[in-house]
Amino acid sequence: MMRLDPEKLSVEFRPGVTTTEPILGRKYTLTHSDITAELFLTIGLQFAYDKITSMRDEVLAEWRNSNIGLFLYVYVYVGNYGPIMNSIRNAIFRRELPLALEAIVYGDNGFFIAHPQLNHAPIWIYFDSTDPAFNQYEYWGTPMNYK
User: Which UniProt key words apply to this protein (predicted)?
Assistant: First the structure.
């Protein structure tokens, strides 16, 4: 399944996080360059808002806890751009999310080695849109599916 080119992935750890800690509070911001196809993963205690552009095509993720255990919550902004543009953005996110999830899992590999139980945690994705046709939560497997 590997679509990720590790040579095109840059990973930055912000203050307060290490390659193994913490679990709760750990946030991922994945951005990219349309020109070079490089991916940029920032792992911190806050989302890397300084890396988010007006295109709003980044992938944000964080570890959350529920009554059934830990899960990876992923957020993408499909938007409020009208039916045609929302449909296009939705299709692009769906096409690129496997690569984005693979980049997060690969880029934070030391974390998953230190916490092997999280390889089996559910991934829930929130597609955020004002259009009800695209505004939804979906289960997308576990990190193990993206190794």
Answer: Transit peptide
Residue partners of 50: CB distance under 8 A and separation at least 6: none
Tell me if the pTM is above 0.90: yes
CB atoms within 10 A of CB 51: 14
* Structure token digits, residue 95: 């096409």
CA distances from 139 to 14, 68, 124, 127 (A): 28, 15, 5, 11
What amino acid is encoded at 36 in this protein?
T
| Residue tagged 């751009």 (tokens) | 81
Rounded Cα distance between 4 and 30, Å, is 13
- Sequential pLDDT tens for the chain (147 residues): 458 999 999 999 999 999 999 999 999 999 998 888 899 999 999 999 999 877 778 999 999 999 999 999 999 999 999 999 999 999 999 999 999 999 999 999 999 999 999 999 999 999 999 999 999 999 999 999 999
Task: Tell me if 19 sits within 8 A of 110, measured CB to CB.
Answer: yes
Closest CA to 76 of 111, 120, 31, 14: 31
